[in-house]
Amino acid sequence: MSLLMVASASVSFAELNHMYSLKFFTNQLSYMLIGIIFGFIVYCVPLRTIFRTNTSFFVLIGCLLMILYTVFFGSLINGSTRWIEFGSLNFQPAELAKIAMILFTADFLVRRVDEVRYQAKGFLRLCGLASFILSAIMFQPDFGSVVIIVGCIGAMIFVAGLPLRLVMILLSTVSVGIVFAIITAGYRVKRVTSFLDPFDDLKDSDYQLGRSIVAFARGEWTGVGYGESIQKLAHLPEAHTDFLLAITGEELGVMGVVFLLSLQILLIWVVMKISYDTLKRRQSRLSYFAFGVGVLFFGQAFVNAGMTLGILPTKGLTMPFFSYGGSSMVVNLMIIGILLRIIKDSPKISPTEARYY
């Protein structure tokens, strides 16, 4: 579905910018192949190595250094410096930071379980460590990735047994932080106000959201037909990226959107099933990691669908495994590699070795 809809949504954009008409289709296919290769490499690494404390720590440090590099030397695209250039390809370290933070948090919650459940210092230590990488991401700036990472960490420490009073403190702090981040950046304020009334300024702040809603309205139940979208004809900017779901709604209708979201729900359910099965085997690191990944996939799918439908403010987050984007596709397929390794090896781990996992 990703390849089909990226091809449909990007042809007119590519031709308008004097590019090969199927450029974004071939790019997306290349990203998938690269992701499968890296996913297979990760799949071949033993779980004991992946979930070792040193591994999660060094991966996190590596992500922090790459993010700092983007802040000072990264490619400026659409007003943000989130990408590192590798020839004709760009890589977004914040995507890798998501899996790095989930991996690190899963290990931390097992090593410091008593501190997290019975003392405030475990919670404060984790927040302190996370703040370094989150602050670096904010300097890019990439507010959406920060919100998703905070949501994943918060959900993971909640299921790990964080006391209710600390949960309330965390929720309050995050809420205040989100409000502060919004009111201190004019473009974020504009996004919130345009979300509240998506048709009051269609020539400026409401342009993308208004066009997205129109696309869904044109599609109705069964869509106008594959390749027949009007909004992709220079009306909805770069429709093959974050707003690909809107073009899907226009061409395939409600039925197409429901089918796509059903696949997302199925994926999330399978990931959560992995988390539950490993928890029953007392493989806590594997369970926390799978749970964090499930929250990550749900959060990104929910935000992407919500913003295109006009029920959430617009934010630059991709629909997992669907929207156009190399970094997201490659990292997500690496996550799948780890999950497949867990499915393969988890039942074979003896109860005496479960504490290492």
UniProtKB/TrEMBL annotation:
- Pathway annotation: Cell wall biogenesis; peptidoglycan biosynthesis
Q: Name one Pfam family in it.
A: FTSW_RODA_SPOVE
InterPro entries listed in its UniProt record = Cell_cycle_FtsW-rel_CS, FtsW, FtsW/RodA
Q: What is its EC number?
A: 2.4.99.28
- Name a single GO biological process: regulation of cell shape
From the UniProt record, which GO molecular function terms apply? Answer: lipid-linked peptidoglycan transporter activity; peptidoglycan glycosyltransferase activity
**UniProt keyword terms in alphabetical order:** Cell cycle, Cell division, Cell membrane, Cell shape, Cell wall biogenesis/degradation, Glycosyltransferase, Membrane, Peptidoglycan synthesis, Transferase, Transmembrane, Transmembrane helix
Q: Does the keyword Cell cycle apply?
A: yes
Q: Cellular component terms, GO, for this chain's entry?
A: cell division site; plasma membrane
Q: Where in the cell is it found?
A: Cell membrane
PROSITE patterns, from UniProt?
Answer: FTSW_RODA_SPOVE
Q: What top-tier enzyme class does this entry carry? A: transferase
Q: Catalyses which reaction?
A: [GlcNAc-(1->4)-Mur2Ac(oyl-L-Ala-gamma-D-Glu-L-Lys-D-Ala-D-Ala)](n)-di-trans,octa-cis-undecaprenyl diphosphate + beta-D-GlcNAc-(1->4)-Mur2Ac(oyl-L-Ala-gamma-D-Glu-L-Lys-D-Ala-D-Ala)-di-trans,octa-cis-undecaprenyl diphosphate = [GlcNAc-(1->4)-Mur2Ac(oyl-L-Ala-gamma-D-Glu-L-Lys-D-Ala-D-Ala)](n+1)-di-trans,octa-cis-undecaprenyl diphosphate + di-trans,octa-cis-undecaprenyl diphosphate + H(+)
Q: Which family does it belong to?
A: Belongs to the SEDS family. FtsW subfamily.
Could you identify this protein by its name? Probable peptidoglycan glycosyltransferase FtsW
- Lineage summary: Bacteria, Pseudomonadati, Pseudomonadota, Gammaproteobacteria, Moraxellales
